[in-house]
Structure formats: structure tokens, C-alpha cells
Amino acid sequence: MPDNDNMDERRKKKANEIITNMHDNKASGRDIQAQKKANKESFGHEGEYTP
Predict the structure, then answer these.
(1) What's the pLDDT tens digit per position in 12-44?
(2) Which one of 8, 19, 29, 34 has the fewest beta carbons within 10 angstroms of its own beta carbon?
(3) Can you give the pLDDT at residue 1?
């Protein structure tokens, strides 16, 4: 099932990218937490700040 692993890795990378962009753009903690919840529902990962 390498395709599933690859898809999961891409979803995780996208979630991280969204959260990193929000941090870089000085989003509020509340907005970031709301986005993490949305990421979890959409991508299966909350996302992390990865500078």
C-alpha cells in the first residue's frame, strides 16, 4: 500500500504548510487552533509549524 502512505504523507505536508503559513502571517492563536481542527477533519492531520 505505498500509494496510501504517499497520499497520507502529502496530506500531512499540506496541513503543515497551511499552519506554517498562518504562523508566518502572524495569525492569532485562536485562528490557528480553528485551522488545526479543520485540517484534522480534512486531511487527517492537524499540521505543525515547520519553518
Answers:
(1) 999 999 999 999 999 999 999 999 999 999 999
(2) 29
(3) 54
Q: If you search the block for the grid coordinates 496530506, which residue do you land on?
A: 11
pLDDT of 11 reads 97
The residues, any chain, with a CB within 8 Å of residue 22's CB and separated by 6 or more, are: 31, 32, 35
The rounded distance, in Å, linking the Cα atoms of 48 and 6 is 18
What single DSSP character describes residue 24? H
Cell 499540521, residue located = 47
* Amino acid sitting at position 39: N
